[in-house]
Write a structure and sequence with these properties.
Blueprint: H1 6-11, H2 16-20, H3 23-34, H4 48-53, H5 61-86, H6 88-91, H7 101-104, H8 109-129, H9 133-151, H10 159-179, H11 185-210, H12 214-217, H13 226-249, H14 254-279, H15 286-292, H16 294-309
């Protein structure tokens, strides 16, 4: 009996579960897959400002933060749908993106566009419904940058990195607006550097996996080299740790300052682990490396526990 190679298995048509599902259920599964549920946890960044400030700010602040998270889930889902429509032709030539529902023909383009419009209205309306125009503004900025990214900015080296990183920062600002917890300058700097580091790591892993073919799927890759991206990732990580230590040192209370300085050790360990994970040639999304690697998760939990002790 011949055992199919990994490459062969990758290119085989996906039957199995999809073939057994009825029409409406197949359509619903295609919709859910297109909205990238595995990416939704990044919308929990709306809780970053309340966590750093040790307060949900306003009465029922937790529920307002949940509304902000839901708004960004809707907004990011709309962006993924439109991005899949724009990239459908290119995705069909990609080793694994060709299985995305729009590229594979399981979700018709008109359906994807209609759903995206509905999700945009929900995302923008969430801030207005709870009377927080700043949340609506953060969501609107995220949508504008994301759609400009899909329309052409993603082909511009460095600029496209800034666009990807801005999505993380705008989530933080949206959560701060919803809960009335103003973020400090140090906090925003650390968040921005972390977001930029992740964006650079995405491009590095993509370049190392696809090599010369990476530019066929993402033209901006022509402006990068693996060594330059590696140096940039490590430089941003180093500046991020330094900024975090400077922020912790500026804490007014001795107990808070001590625990937050200790937490910088766990943060550094997490960044070192992340550096090692991204050094490997892997087609896994960077988000999976952050959320699914056991050592990485232990470092993250240790950082969170030490950070919480200082609150």
């Amino acid at each position: 009996m011949t055992v199919p190679t990994p490459a062969a298995r990758l290119t085989e048509p996906q039957s199995g579960t999809n073939a057994r599902l009825r029409g409406p259920l197949r359509w619903l599964k295609a919709v859910v897959q297109s909205t990238r549920p595995r990416q939704w946890p990044k919308n929990l960044l709306v809780f970053a400002a309340p966590l750093a400030g040790d307060s949900f700010g306003r009465p029922f602040g937790f529920w307002y933060a949940l509304v902000a998270a839901a708004a960004f889930v809707a907004a990011s889902s709309a962006v993924y749908l439109i991005n899949d429509v724009v990239d459908a032709e290119r995705d069909r030539g990609h080793p694994y993106k060709k299985f995305r529902p729009v590229a594979a023909g399981r979700l018709p383009v008109p359906h994807a566009v209609t759903l995206a419009v509905c999700l945009v209205l929900v995302a923008l309306g969430a801030g207005l419904v709870i009377g927080e125009p700043l949340l609506a503004a953060a969501v609107a900025a995220y949508l504008l940058i994301s759609f400009l990214y899909s329309a052409g900015l993603k082909h511009v080296p460095v600029v496209e990195l800034a666009c990807v990183a801005s999505g993380f920062v705008l989530r933080v600002l949206g959560g701060a607006a919803a809960t009335h917890v103003p973020p400090s300058g140090w906090f925003l700097l650390v968040c921005s550097l972390g977001a930029l580091m992740v964006a650079i790591a995405k491009r590095y892993t993509e370049l190392t996996v696809l090599g010369a073919d990476s530019a066929k799927h993402r033209p901006a890759m022509r402006g990068y080299s693996a060594p330059a991206l590696r140096v940039a990732q490590r430089a941003v990580s180093t500046i991020m740790v330094i900024s975090y230590v400077l922020w912790a040192s500026s804490e007014p209370h001795a107990r808070t300052q001590t625990w937050h300085l200790i937490s910088s050790v766990a943060l550094t360990a997490a960044l070192v682990r992340f550096d090692r994970l991204t050094a490997r040639a892997t087609s896994k999304p960077v988000e999976d490396l952050i959320a699914r690697d056991p050592v990485m998760v232990v470092c993250e939990i240790a950082w969170l526990a030490l950070f919480a002790l200082g609150l």
